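Sat 14:20. Reprocessing the chain from the morning session after the first attempt stalled halfway. Input below, unchanged.
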Amino acid sequence: MRAGWLAGWLAGGLAGWLAGWRAGGTSLEREREREREREREREREKREREREREREREREREREREIERERERERERERVL
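Finished this time. Tokens:
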């Protein structure tokens, strides 16, 4: 009788553990998933910073082009006079 009770209790515990594991995984798996999520977030932030740096470089190039156009207009005025 005790063996039957023990077998039932172990089977129930195993079924419960398995259901919980399937539902949420082990704490180690959850920690690994959180670490992967943090890594994805770091990569996303890195890409965003790089895009912002590229936008700033493009704005700087545009300012330089505008300065050069202004210089060209000045040279043209000087030639006309």
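Residues 9 and 43 are 47 Å apart (CA to CA).
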